[in-house]
Write a structure and sequence with these properties.
mainly alpha; globular
């Protein structure tokens, strides 16, 4: 018998109410990590901060940084929460953060693409799986291609999000009174005090706070995702099959939003679809709206993190993330001619990859490693 102690929430005997309480505790830990991250950057010296983020003012460079960061951590929730913390601490401005958020949106699709490669040996399965995975990639690429130039020319996303922030929190100042911030300030203060007791000052203390904050964000989100998956995963596949069988795109989209909020991961939502598509149980047309809903659902984590910062600028960036995904749906989905563009592109790409399997590898490496790494290094 295996008596090893696993991750929090992995014991089979844990009841649903206890697991739900554990998720709430982990969420509190996540918000504490966001608070520590912002405080850490405020403690760093200006020269060090400038060196860390030099060159990110280039919008294409920022896009590549957001994409690469999300690929590395395998979670857009983590990367966007970090971006929100940077904005809250004043290290990154709203204009610089918007392309980073768009890049994070692109990077979150890497999990699906990698999952589809598991079907590489069986041509028909792989064709369907790769199309189901890359429909997410291609929709997000089209959305960035459309809205990044519009944002740079008009400030549509940041201005609209700023207006919404003003209406919601009723403040145009540098901070607002957030009950979430008050709730996480005490444990963050304990950690900071412990570092001071150890003799940490200035940049050393700031670096330690950033490291601890990132560790809490990573660990909390990982265990939240794992426990939420155990809470709802048994129902997810059945709900998707039942809803998609009804053939309603809007309902399928809402399902994608709800499931992603529930499991705190768009990768889980969309990764469930890849094997279902590979087996032929779901069509690409049925999968498409669920991925769009997952795009919107995944923005909730950053929204929650931004409210914990007490910074209107951070809230604005989090709303930009939501507004960007909603705007993409509004532009591409209602009109059939536009709606079918990502479908045709994904089908064509899958056909090419099925004929030459090496093309799939080249696409994955080029899209998620070579392109963002080159952009982040060169575009200063």
């Amino acid at each position: 018998m295996n008596t090893a102690v696993g991750a929090p929430g992995e014991r089979r005997g844990m009841s649903t109410p206890v697991r739900a309480v554990l998720v709430v505790a982990l969420l509190y830990l996540f918000l504490t990590g966001v608070e520590l991250l912002g405080g850490g950057f405020k403690n760093l010296g200006n020269d060090l901060v400038d060196g860390l983020f030099e060159g990110v003012s280039n919008p294409i460079g920022g896009l590549c940084v957001g994409l690469l960061a999300t690929v590395l951590v395998q979670s857009s929730s983590v990367s966007t929460s970090v971006i929100v913390g940077l904005v809250a601490s004043g290290v990154v401005g709203i204009d610089e953060a918007v392309p980073m958020v768009m890049g994070a949106n692109l990077g979150t699709t890497v999990t699906n693409t990698l999952a589809s490669l598991g079907h590489l040996r069986r041509e028909q399965e792989f064709r369907r799986a790769f199309a189901a995975a890359t429909i997410h990639d291609l929709f997000n690429i089209l959305a960035v291609a459309l809205f990044l130039p519009i944002e740079l020319a008009t400030g549509y996303l940041s201005r609209t999000a700023g207006w919404i922030t003003g209406q919601v929190i009723g403040s145009s100042g540098s901070s607002f009174r957030s009950p979430l911030k008050a709730a996480v300030k005490m444990p963050a203060g304990w950690v900071e005090g412990w570092m001071v007791d150890l003799g940490a000052r200035g940049n050393v203390k700031g670096t330690m706070m950033i490291v601890v904050g990132l560790a809490l964000i990573f660990l909390a989100l990982a265990f939240i995702t794992r426990n939420m998956r155990l809470l709802v995963a048994s129902r997810v596949e059945a709900a998707i099959n039942r809803t998609l069988g009804a053939g309603s795109g809007v309902v399928a989209m809402l399902l994608g939003v709800v499931v992603t909020i529930a499991v705190q991961s768009s990768s889980i939502t969309t990764s469930v679809l890849v094997p279902l598509a590979a087996s032929g149980l779901l069509t690409l047309e049925n999968i498409y709206p669920v991925t769009l809903g997952a795009n919107v659902g995944t923005t909730v984590t950053a929204l929650l993190a931004s409210l914990a910062t007490g910074s209107p600028a951070a809230v604005t960036v989090a709303i930009v993330h939501t507004l960007f995904n909603v705007s993409g749906i509004v532009v591409f989905y209602p009109v059939q001619r536009f709606r079918r563009v990502p479908l045709r592109l994904a089908t064509g790409l899958a056909e090419m990859a099925a004929r030459r399997r090496s093309a799939a590898i080249v696409y994955a490496v080029g899209m998620f490693v070579v392109l963002p790494l080159t952009g982040a290094l060169i575009l200063r």
